[in-house]
Design brief:
Helix content is 45%, strand content 6%. The protein has eleven helices and four strands. A two-stranded antiparallel sheet has the order 1-2. The relative contact order is 0.13.
Length: 247
């Protein structure tokens, strides 16, 4: 369920990353997906709060994935804590989600912003208009990846949607296209005018101003998975009961 919910069910077989730019990805992709699986098993078996999906200070890694994150561990899979000190924690910091919502050789604030808007918050975005220019796989030498996106988003046909989605992706620019931490400009202004800086600021925003939206979307996804079908209007009372914890 966790991998389906986060759209990372195929990360273990994802072969679209540039081996020239990210030579370690192929050996890590299975571990990235396994981390999500183990995190959700722990979430369910220990009856943790749904909000820990956003603010958990722990995760599950083996030695290779720990090294990828900048931790030092030995041996097989284990639970580690202290992610907040590393600027990580929860689904926003998973290598699987960050890698899946990125290009072959560069980041994509558009993909990450779209994922957060639609998958995490449950908002529907319109279909992109025809004739949208395709961005290059690598930013020109005189532009950062963020500046490339910002220039693209000035197109009048695209501006409306990009104002909704790009800021979420800019907040996650502190991670490269396979989820490694890096230095980048992560300050941004979200669609409702809230200023945030990086994953920490985005996480706090989701936990405070968008908590109900996040929780409701999770309930929709869980109910749809349990029923094996799309959620319908008639399911609304059940979702509201799930939100209130009345079940």
């Amino acid at each position: 369920f966790g991998c389906q919910y986060l759209h990372v069910r195929d990360v273990a077989t994802l072969d679209e990353k540039s081996e020239r730019h990210f030579p370690t990805f192929l050996d890590l992709r299975d571990d990235m997906q396994e981390e999500v699986t183990r995190f959700f098993i722990d979430l369910i078996q220990n009856n943790r709060s749904v909000l820990s999906l956003l603010d958990a200070d722990h995760t599950f890694v083996n030695a290779d994935l720990a090294k990828h994150y900048g931790f030092e561990t030995k041996g097989g899979w284990q639970r580690i804590a202290g992610l907040h000190e590393k600027g990580r924690g929860g689904i926003l910091g998973f290598a699987a989600t960050l890698a899946k919502q990125a290009g072959a050789s560069r980041n994509s604030a558009i993909l990450r912003g779209t994922w957060l808007t639609e998958v995490v918050l449950g908002e529907k975005l319109p279909i992109p208009p025809k004739g949208v220019p395709v961005l290059p796989e690598e930013a020109p030498a005189n532009l950062t990846e963020r500046q490339l996106i910002e220039r693209h988003s000035r197109d009048e046909n695209c501006m409306g949607c990009h104002k909704r989605i790009d800021p979420y992706g800019f907040a996650l620019e502190g991670f490269d296209a396979i989820g490694r931490a890096r230095k980048a400009d992560t300050k941004t202004v979200l669609p409702d005018g809230t200023s945030v800086d990086g994953l920490v600021g985005l996480r706090d925003y989701l936990l405070t101003k968008r908590r109900d939206d996040f929780t409701r979307q999770f309930c929709r996804k869980l109910l749809g998975y349990a029923l094996g079908r799309s959620v319908q209007l008639s399911d609304k009372p059940l979702i509201e009961a799930m939100m209130k914890g009345d079940l």
